[in-house]
Structures are given as C-alpha cells and as structure tokens.
Amino acid sequence: MNQPKNAVVLLSGGLDSATVLAIAQEQGYRCHTLGVAYGQRHSAELAAAERIAQKYHVSSHRVIHVDLGQIGGSALTDHSLAVPESLAAGIPITYVPARNTLFLSLALGLAEVLGAADIFIGVNAVDYSGYPDCRPEFVAAFERLAQLATRVGVEGGVMQIHTPLLTLSKAEIIGRGLQLGVDYAETVSCYQADVDGRACGRCDSCRLRQQGFENAGVIDPTRYIG
Amino acid sequence: MNQPKNAVVLLSGGLDSATVLAIAQEQGYRCHTLGVAYGQRHSAELAAAERIAQKYHVSSHRVIHVDLGQIGGSALTDHSLAVPESLAAGIPITYVPARNTLFLSLALGLAEVLGAADIFIGVNAVDYSGYPDCRPEFVAAFERLAQLATRVGVEGGVMQIHTPLLTLSKAEIIGRGLQLGVDYAETVSCYQADVDGRACGRCDSCRLRQQGFENAGVIDPTRYIG
User: Fold this and answer.
1) Most buried of A25, A103, A213, A219, CB within 10 angstroms?
2) What is the 3-state secondary structure (H, E, C) of A108-163?
3) Size of interface A-B (CB pairs under 8 A)
4) What residue of B is the nearest CA neighbor of A148?
5) How does B176-202 read in b/e, with b if 16+ C-beta sit within 10 Å?
6) Counted domains in chain A
7) In which domain, by residue range, is B170 found?
8) Is residue B223 part of a domain?
C-alpha cells in the first residue's frame, strides 16, 4: 500500500480554503496547512484557520507573518483606506497586490522542505472579485515557475498546484463542502470581521458569501455584527 | 523630457545587489529598494543594505519581515544546521527554498503599488552556488507570471524583471561595479558575518567573493573575523 503523500494546503480560515482542505483530505493527502498573517484587517480569519486545522487533525499548521503594511496599496492592509460596501467595476481596492503569488511562494518553500509536490489553493475564477491572480492562466504560470524554482523540479519531479474550486460557483463550492461535512459556521469570510469572527454583511466578500448560500438553497450560518 | 521611471530594486546588502542598484540608477530609474528580513543568519547584510540605500539616495527603502524560520530547511534560516565551509556538489544546504520566488513576489506587490513596471534582482547564473532559482529559465517564468498576476499586466502593460548580472562572472560584476563607483567595503556577502559585518572567509559565499576579487585583479576590501 502506498504511503499517503504530503500536501501543503493554504488555509485562510475562509469558506473557500476550508472546503479545499476537506477536498485534499478526501483525496487522501496528509495535509500541512499554512496561514499567512499579512496585516489583514480580518485577523479573525486566522483564528478560524487555527480552529479548522485542529478540527481536521492536520499533520501540521503554521502561520507565517509577512508585513504587507510596508507595501500598502490595499484596503485590506492599509487601515487608512475604507473597505467598500458595494461591488464596483474593475479591480477593487481590496485587491492585495501580488497576494496569491506571495502565498504560493511561501507554500512552495514549505513544500520543498516537507518533500511535498502538491500544493492546494482555493482560488476561484467564477464568483470572485476581479483579482488578476485568481485566473486559470495565473495558476498555470505559477505551476510552470514552480518546476523551475525548486529542487523537486531540478530533480525531475513535478510540483503540482491544485485548484479544486477554480471553475465552481460559490453555491457549488458550498454544496461540495457540505457533502464533505465542512462546518461553515467555523469559517470567516468578511473583510472586516470583528475579533469574534462576526461579519459586517456589507463588504464584497460578505455579499458573495450570502449570494452563494442563497443560490445553494442552504441556510447561511454566518454570525453578523449587531 | 520624460519623467524618470520608478523601479523596485531588491537590495540584500551583498556585493551583487549593490552593483545592481548602481546599474539601475545609471540607467536613469528612480529606485525604490527592498530588503527582506527572512530570519537569515547574516542580518549584518540588512544593516549594509540600509547604509547603501542611504548612500545612493534612493527614493525609498523598505525592509519586509518574513519569518522563514517557520519553514526551515536551510542552514541560513535554521540555526540548528551548520553553514558548510567547503563547496559540495548539488544544491547546497544554504539554499533557502523558494527564496527568489518569495523576494520577487514581494517586489511585484511593491511595484504594483508604486506604479512601477520594472524590477531589478541580482541573480547570477555563472559564479553561483547551484540554486535552481538563479537560472535564466526561472527568471523568464517569473516574468511571464508577473504579467498575469498584476493590474499592470491586466491593463496591457509589461512588467519587466531586470537581471543585469545574469550572465556575468563574479569578476565581471566587480569590474562593472567599480566602474560605477560601488564601494564594496560597504557590502556584506558572508553567510555568517558577525554583527559588525565582518566575514568568516570560509563559507561558499565568502569563497565566491574572494575568487571574484582575485580574478578581477582587485584588492578585496572585505573585513574578516579574527
């Protein structure tokens, strides 16, 4: 019988990444979860990630701190910018420049150290907010880079970036997660959740989540502020 | 007359990146330097980066902290591993997994925020230590990724990764830097320099540097321990 393979799963504590973790486990991987504390407003997400990692008995859970406040330019890391409460055209101010490139870089480093050749990330190109680094062509380019950047690639192995949610709608993601027993009450999606993980109900991320539960015909367990 | 263009220059405080900064300035860019504190042993490098940035009157200098000690796997970030003092075949233990991918990701985020489409990095594929992420094909793959990952790319711009040292020998790098007035006494290359920036003279990086000065026929201004 084959040993289970190690995988690195990027786990933010949101709805999408919790579903990705459930999928990776169902596929038989030994999961090592990685959260990134990048100065985001919604640090309640990271507390959620920790709880989810424990619940899933992952092989390891890490949080890497990266101070993106030094770079700024996003309403999620620059607290002088307001989080918008209506969907606008174009790339929104909540876009964190190069965030998924950074997250995948850190996951790639960890994968190398663990001898893992599989990385899972919950990017989604359907019900998403218009971020350039959520598109399939971005993921394909990172996978190509990963071959060239790493020891695994040099030694002839294949480093694979798994994006099981890429072409699913938010409702489909929720449906898949519920099949796998994901407890969405544990997840935090809101860009400006309070310390207890209660959501504002008004930001892009809250709206996409609400719409997803509505379309899935499922009751949204999110706790709201006030 | 055109306004000078902004560029992000990765500046570690070593010989290579100091030379890259001099080259970027000579090419007329307004340089924004970026150092990464990744838990490296040789934090004297970062102090050197700060001095060099000041001396060159860069438009801005930032240091981003990323705790790669969480990931481990390298003698540069895991203090339980010894820095080797002889060159060995293969990828050495001083290799920091996915380091250049991470550095370029952070530079990419900063470039987006500054509205810069030019990133400079001192990777070198000649007198290097056998790291996979110093090869031209790695740089080309990152450049392709950068187009897809960013607002600049989405809006039809071109994000360029400049690697002016890529095909130079260490001796040629030193020769080029001296032409441009780089003061190599300010730079720190050693993997285990002391807090004053004095070098061990025995690690891979010290050996490559010594050999470079010898081949360039120039006196090495490095200060050594003991």
Assistant:
1) A103
2) HHHHHHHCCCEEECCCCCCCCCCCHHHCHHHHHHHHHHHHHHCHHHHCCCCCEEEC
3) 143
4) B138
5) bbeeeebebebbbbbbbbbeebbbbbb
6) 1
7) 6-216
8) no
Residue B191 falls within a domain, yes or no? yes
Q: Is residue A225 part of a domain?
A: no
Q: What is the pLDDT along chain A (226 residues), one digit of tens a residue?
A: 568 899 999 999 999 999 999 999 999 999 999 999 887 766 788 899 999 999 999 999 999 999 888 887 776 666 676 766 665 556 666 677 888 999 999 999 999 989 899 999 999 887 666 778 888 999 999 999 999 988 888 788 889 999 999 999 999 999 999 999 999 999 988 888 888 889 999 888 888 899 999 999 999 999 998 7
> With an 8 Å Cβ cutoff, are B71 and A62 in contact?
yes
In degrees to the nearest 10, what's the CA dihedral of B100, B105, B107, B112?
A: 160
This prediction has a pTM of 0.90
Q: Is B142 on the interface with A (CB under 8 A)?
A: yes
Find the CATH number of the domain harbouring A111: 3.40.50.620
Q: Are B161 and B121 in contact, with CB atoms under 8 Å apart?
A: yes
